[in-house]
């Protein structure tokens, strides 16, 4: 691609429709300038979500599980990645019947009376009835959005998995007090997966009335869990597509089927004054290419610049590198991200590939059981703007 072609022109050429994710866009040709000639011109919607002054992300926990081999063994033993996650017999829905014989109704019946006020007792019970409860961790981060007038507004993205681990992590980062003081306005659930959602009672322990935003596509068990976990506040089921929240902040629900019988992912966009667009994601099951393409097609943002990205980018979650991922790493240079904060399902190997490629990766401290400094670990922060 010649240097005189602007980034947005490249992105316009890359837009291929709603069905394209990372797997559908692999290969060197898929990221070349030549491919745009095969696609019709796409009219940008230029949705204006306003601007904010800055956004700070605090990684509460990116360690969704502690041992890959244990998790993969459980998945295979329970029937594979296409099996309903509620049947795995993982905590907190363990029914004591063994791997692959789980049931939401049977599991929740054993702990429901303790939620959300006594999660310690609930976890004690589920440990006895679940498969590998000590391998459960969770994903969650705090978003602090500074508005143009200097006011700071706080939000949570996801609530993790293990009651025990997430409660410890919340206390470590002061999230428990923020929730008790009603400083955190809302909880956004990225998707229904165990490691992002099943720790919901930990948030509700400290603020049962917090507003919750879930993406369209939750299964009946997932919706019922909100009630069973003790939520007393407002629940918003966000429809597919763009949803504006406050100036400079919007979510986008991607209607995609995901492993373990989960559907739909909700990610966030922030338009930072004088910097550009910042994308924040839980797992990015929609793929980072589609995430960037959607921004180009849908949004108006500062300086025509994709300023930064944070979260799990779902490239090599088990560090099982496939050569085709190298094409994906190479393709990222086209987007010109100025700050990259990755962790969780990005995979340590992928983060190191980014660093080797010279991308502006903000490294971490490898504290609190995070594995490597190559990405932002538990307790680390990143600021955009």
Element-level helix/strand string = HEEHHHEEHHEHHEHEEEEEHEEHEHE
Q: Report strand order across the widest sheet.
A: 7-6-5-4-3-2-15
Q: How large, in whole angstroms, is the Cα Rg?
A: 20 Å
The helix content is 25-40%
Query: Given the structure, what is the number of helices?
Result: 12
Overall shape: globular
Largest sheet, in brief, is:
7 strands, mixed
What's the N-to-C terminus distance? 30 Å
Given as residue ranges, the uncertain stretches (5+ residues, pLDDT < 50) are 1-36
Mean pLDDT across the residues is: 90
Number of strand elements: 15
Summarize the structure.
The protein is built from twelve helices and 15 strands. It has helices spanning 7-14, 68-78, 104-109, 119-129, 163-172, 175-180, 194-197, 200-206, 220-228, 288-298, 324-331, 348-356, and strands at 47-48, 54-61, 140-146, 152-157, 184-188, 211-215, 235-238, 241-246, 249-258, 262-272, 276-281, 299-300, 306-312, 339-343, 381-384.
